[in-house]
Amino acid sequence: MSSVSQAQSIPILSAPLDAIDTDLLLIPWFEEKGLENFGELDQATGGELARALASREFVARPFDLFITPLVNRAWKARRVLFIGGGREEAFTPDLARKTAVAAALAARQRRTSSVTLLVRPGGRAPSGDVDVAGFFQSAAEGLTLAEFDGGSYKTDEGRIGPAPRLALAIRHVPDSSPESIARLEGAVARGRMLGECSNLARELANEPGNTLTPREFADRASNIVSSGGAAVEILDEKQIEALGMGLLMGVARGSSEPPRLMVFRHEPAGAAPGGPVLGLVGKGITFDTGGISIKPADGMDRMKDDMAGGAAVACAMRAIAMLGAPIRVIGVVPTTENMPGGRAVKPGDILKSAEGKTVEVLNTDAEGRLILGDGLWYARKLGATHLVDVATLTGAIVVALGKLTTGIFGTPDWWVEHVRRVGDRAGDRMWPLPIYDEYFDQLKSEIADFTNTGGRPGGAITAALFLKEFTGGLPWVHLDIAGTAWAEESRPYAPKGATGVAVRTLAELPFTSAAWK
Ligand code: BES
Ligand code: MN
Ligand code: ZN
Prior knowledge:
By secondary structure, this protein is α/β, with parallel strands linked by helices. Helix content is 32%, strand content 18%. The protein is built from 14 helices and 20 strands.
């Protein structure tokens, strides 16, 4: 089994800017700011920076770019790229991450061989302190995210240049003790790892349905996770059947590709026996045709990314193991195609879940909640005490929140709010929607315990309430990433295609267990 290649680490340089030997210096710049202590740099550009600021050619709104040569031969760097960061007090680690991606992507387009990004910690935390390590981590995440290559099946040379050699620089180290430098290096290594694992998830989600079948998905994910150091078990259709997973088996019936159930385990030696166990469950539909309730042709190709939640769980498990999370974590990814074959589940059919509950399938296109129902039950069976599921679950969430914000649902409120905050810091924005019991009336069935569709009103909410039936009353969060897993338009900080959403949130979560109830 080949292991996943690991990127080179990103060094932190503390030499003066003129001594940094790099093809392109990347410098974040803030709105309404004069040259301040960048006078020498301006002189090295022959006064181009001051001129561009004075003429307002460059005003440093987020992602504005200004690139100019360094004409002073005493400087080791060849050129400098200024990237707008907006107002300094509003420059958060999240914006630092995005500007790092945008600057490094611009550098690639210019075919640079090496770049060095100056880390400029911005806005103050409520405490008044600046989270310098947080800015280093997000800078490393951003540079790494910019290394992602989407078009891996293009036989001609891609549009964008190869990834340049990376370095980070800092001008004023608030505390230059070896411990403080080691802390920043740790933050950079962590950011590098989280960026790499996000990129692995993007690569999986970009992969088309013909190459990434359920078996291939399970193979690749087990490679990614086991080479990271977590335990992997792949259950085949016989084992899935034996566990009584009628929902997963029901969805898989329409396909000639057999389903798989991936199980990942991170079990650190120091974890307290009665301590919390995080259960991560991801939707792994490698292609969603809708089944017998078939989708319209327009845009159906998008449904190759219907396993983005499963990819996020697998790639987060790698990060969790590599970074040595202090608690036990279990990952469960049910994977199958949703196809309209001759043996496919039909509208009106009744399936029995491993939990024992029966489901009347009114729409075979509401398949994600079916396979997740069995997945959530299995995570509980394996000992999870706190659950998070991630799924490209509903078109309704795209209508409600658009493409920039993940829908977050769950219970109790503290757990939802906790995951939301971790997500905010990780750059995965989320917004809560309610799951009042009354909505469950929409899932009433005449002949089974409940149906799998609640109609159009509140479609993302009734989907969440369906999942809640399988959580056994444990603290549980559901992330609906149908809008956020895939970028339809490229942005300065993200190309079109898979985004790697939720990987960093899931990976950071087990490190926050001290705050759990
Ligand atoms: N995979 C889709 C949800 C989806 C839609 C993801 C758009 C990404 C973009 C899911 O399986 C689905 O088809 N959901 C249905 C549910 C409905 C039949 C109750 C939907 O949202 O239309
Ligand atoms: Mn569907
Ligand atoms: Zn689906």
